Amino acid sequence: MTVQFHDRPLGDSALAQLFGEARSYNGWLDRPVSEAQIEQIHSLLKMGPTSANSQPARFVWCRSQDAKNQLAECAIETNRAKILTAPVCVIIGYDLDFHEELPFLFPHADAKLWFDGNEALRRETGARNSALQGAYLMLAARSLGLDCGPMSGVDLDLVTARFFADQPRCRADWICSIGYGDPASIFPRSPRPEFARFNRIV
Ligand SMILES: Cc1cc2nc3c(=O)[nH]c(=O)nc-3n(C[C@H](O)[C@H](O)[C@H](O)COP(=O)(O)O)c2cc1C
């Protein structure tokens, strides 16, 4: 196996696209997102690290009007249009029994054993790593030229019941609209802390 070293920083334009100028959008341009783009987002996000490569996140991509209607009904009033007008809104959930997939995902150790019979550890690990996967998802979407609108203002029990009915061990955690953001829909950027405020180098 040859590993290519990527030891140079990305250029300013890439950094701006991913971070500096990337925003959370509240409204969307009338421009579709294809199934191929959704699969491309996944092909990138799945490469992000998770503990024991556990990949506990489960994604439901609401692209049809019916699915978006169903999801919007679960949301607080102010989030409804942000779901309905987006080309895609993805539900990020996680599987409490993610360890069942570890023989496939982490074949060089019996990692399933670490989680067997320990639901508390699975819950903690699943929540932590699926949140990471959601972050990878947003960065993947941005790196493909798309914008994101993350939201937790939804009834998660209702979303879980509606969208994971056939996967009773999965739980919805948050949702994220994806598309081409309407610049008219964003507020001025909120303050970000200077380094010393929340960091210590020890
Ligand atoms: C997990 C999560 C939940 C959020 N929930 C909501 C929400 O329910 N409704 C909403 O309008 N914005 C929501 N936001 C958007 C945040 O307010 C926004 O990302 C933050 O203010 C930073 O904005 P910026 O990316 O434009 O700088 C959420 C963001 C995240 C990451």
Please provide a written account of the structure:
This protein has a single domain (42-186), classed as NADH Oxidase. Helix 2 packs across helix 7 (119-143) and helix 3 (65-72) runs antiparallel to helix 4 (77-84). The radius of gyration is 18 Å and the shape is globular. Helix content is 40%, strand content 14%. The protein has helices at 12-20, 35-45, 65-72, 77-84, 102-105, 112-115, 119-143, 156-163, 195-198; strands at residues 57-62, 88-95, 147-151, 170-179. The protein has a 4-stranded antiparallel sheet, sandwiched between helices. It contains 9 helices and 4 strands, in the order H-H-E-H-H-E-H-H-H-E-H-E-H. The protein is α+β, with helices and mostly antiparallel strands. Flavin mononucleotide binds next to strand 3.
CATH-derived architecture: 3-Layer(aba) Sandwich
Strand residue content: 5-15%
Question: What's the β-strand tally?
Answer: 4
CATH superfamily: NADH Oxidase
CATH topology: NADH Oxidase
The rough form would be described as globular
Q: What is the count of helical runs?
A: 9
Low-confidence stretches: none
Percent range for helical residues? 40-55%
Identify the quaternary structure here: single chain
Sheet bearing the most strands, described? Answer: 4 strands, antiparallel
In whole angstroms, the N-to-C terminal distance is 37 Å
| The number of domains | 1
Ligand inventory reads: flavin mononucleotide
Under the CATH scheme, which class?
Alpha Beta
- Rg, rounded, reads 18 Å
Structural class: alpha+beta
- Helix-strand topology string: HHEHHEHHHEHEH
Average pLDDT score? 97
Strand order across the largest sheet:
1-2-4-3
